[in-house]
């Protein structure tokens, strides 16, 4: 049997993650103890949040320790099992970490493996619409954003993992949906393929002018994945009682200077508006409801799923940085082995 | 009869308001038309919000026009009446503007005069706890802050008009209350006289250390009147599901550079917390309920009211700037005539 290959955190990055922040290790695969399983990782989810997990300090989840295998969600196939919970050949989703094989107790809390069905949806969908990004989008939008039919919803990172589902769910709820994304290709995609009403290409257009043009009734819900100047600009266009969902701030994650606070936050006061932070884990007891609803919409062809697959575990460092350079187009997934 | 003396807006201020931004005008008092009243102004309310009204641009209320009498709330006595709504000698509260006499229709919408009873409470109280600051504090805290017994509430501008009532109401609701104010005298006052649990003197102490010391259980509700560094520091100490009420940002109102956005706003994400803006006018249909509750607590000696009275309409420009220099101690009121 082959050995395990792992990416471990070697140093806490300053700014963009460098190759030297990672350590590649190779280990023999140890025999299973009773109750344990071995999962062969097929696909890894690459998420902006991973950059935050590499930092020290209090957050919604403990930081990855120096020397620890980098945390990541993934899907895989059970290669061996000494647990009644899973059989060899089962497809599973869970916290595999950035490695070829995950080995441990079948009921490990932090890995939290559960079976998935490759006949219902492609495996990568379980890392996207039917995975964490989908749950983030579905619950964050409906519970914190609370869009009502006829309202205008704006979402940044519109072609990304979370943004694509936010916009499509908002369309299903009867909203006018305007995306913000980088580049003509992404903008064309969310409008033509995903059915957004419009998309502002922040790399080539003025976001301010775009909002004025495409949100003639103002902005009722803004789902923010990026922070920085875009958040500040949207704040100038919000309506009375608007809801801003703070899901992420990818523009700020590699800052070596302090985070750029929203200079226009007093628009919250003028408009009696609200800005609220969300973390997907809070909805864990209702994931099954979100998966059921999104699965239904997908089966009906009402919601599409777009993944950007990079091949080869060895390309993990380069692939992760694509997120912060806006180079991925759709949910970024790293294929570790052929399914 | 004497003439009317008025302060009109001469220019839109840049930074701190200068004497040249005002024009003093003197006019004869015209005879009343049918349905009109003349109110002799006794006390004027000086509020941080007035600085915002002097700026151009969209806000929750239209800007004061150049040449217009400066907007202000006041209490006065009806000097003459040709309306059945008010009799000469009635005490009233409403939008008098910065002048000696207000003359116009008894049912003028923007002035919105209503009778007050000087036997129930001192006249100045109707510009403080039983007026707009009291309503702002009461409804902003209870409706947006939603404090629960046992939670920790922090309020900045603690000795100011809104802050003093926020803290006292939170104490009545069973919360631990920590104020932030400038100077030992103000801090001693809110603790000893108003019954706050603690007060941090931001001019002489580290706010960060003070919060660590006085909020050992973290911060559940932060009622923000000041913005700037203090908001940013409190953001580092908030609890899961904390509520931040954005009532004002007095530290930023005279900026000639962009407003300082809260650099630590991603603490909202980490803590699934909320930041919401409030404007008192939204609660206008329930002011009577707020006045009844605050009046009851005042009558029972559970809530105190502290005003800082400056004398003489001619001192209006200097008095207004006291707010932005932190020089007032309690709700700032300008006495225009002896009651």
Automatic annotation (TrEMBL), chains A, B:
Domain of life: Bacteria
Limits of the Enoyl reductase (ER) domain: 15-334
Pfam families, A to Z: ADH_N_2, ADH_zinc_N
Coiled coil: none
Gene Ontology MF terms in the entry: oxidoreductase activity, acting on the CH-CH group of donors, NAD or NADP as acceptor
InterPro entries from the UniProt entry: ADH-like_C (IPR013149), ADH_N_2 (IPR041694), ER (IPR020843), GroES-like_sf (IPR011032), MDR_fam (IPR045010), NAD(P)-bd_dom_sf (IPR036291)
Keyword annotations of the record: Oxidoreductase
Name of this protein: NADP-dependent oxidoreductase
Annotated source species: Duganella callida
């Amino acid at each position: 049997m082959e050995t395990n290959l792992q990416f471990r955190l070697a140093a806490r990055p300053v700014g963009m993650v460098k190759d030297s922040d990672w350590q590649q290790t190779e280990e023999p695969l140890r025999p299973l103890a009773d109750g344990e399983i071995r999962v062969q990782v097929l696909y890894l989810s690459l998420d902006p949040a991973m950059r935050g997990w590499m930092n020290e300090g209090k957050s919604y989840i403990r930081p990855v320790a120096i020397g620890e295998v980098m945390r990541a969600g993934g899907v895989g196939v059970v290669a061996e099992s000494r647990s009644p919970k899973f059989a060899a050949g089962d497809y599973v989703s869970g916290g595999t970490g950035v490695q070829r094989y995950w080995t441990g107790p079948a009921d490990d809390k932090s890995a939290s493996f559960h079976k998935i069905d490759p006949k219902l949806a492609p495996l990568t969908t379980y890392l996207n619409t039917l995975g964490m990004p989908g749950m983030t989008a579905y619950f964050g939008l409906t519970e914190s954003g609370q869009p009502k039919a006829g309202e205008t919803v704006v979402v940044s990172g519109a072609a990304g993992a979370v943004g694509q589902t936010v916009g499509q769910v908002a369309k299903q709820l009867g909203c006018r949906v305007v995306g913000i994304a980088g580049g003509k290709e992404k903008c064309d995609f969310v409008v033509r393929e995903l059915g957004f009403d419009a998309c502002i290409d922040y790399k080539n257009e003025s976001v301010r002018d775009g909002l004025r043009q495409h949100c003639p009734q103002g902005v009722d819900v803004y789902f923010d994945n990026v922070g920085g100047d875009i958040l500040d600009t949207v704040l100038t266009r919000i309506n009375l009682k608007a809801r801003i969902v703070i899901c992420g701030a990818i523009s700020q994650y590699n800052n070596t200077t302090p985070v750029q606070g929203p200079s226009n936050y007093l628009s919250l006061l003028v408009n009696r508006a609200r800005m609220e932070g969300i973390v997907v884990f809070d909805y864990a007891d209702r994931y099954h409801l979100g998966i059921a609803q999104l699965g239904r919409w997908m089966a009906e062809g009402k919601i599409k799923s777009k993944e950007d697959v990079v091949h080869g575990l060895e390309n993990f460092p380069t692939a992760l940085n694509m997120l912060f350079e806006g180079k991925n187009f759709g949910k970024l997934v790293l294929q570790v082995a052929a399914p």
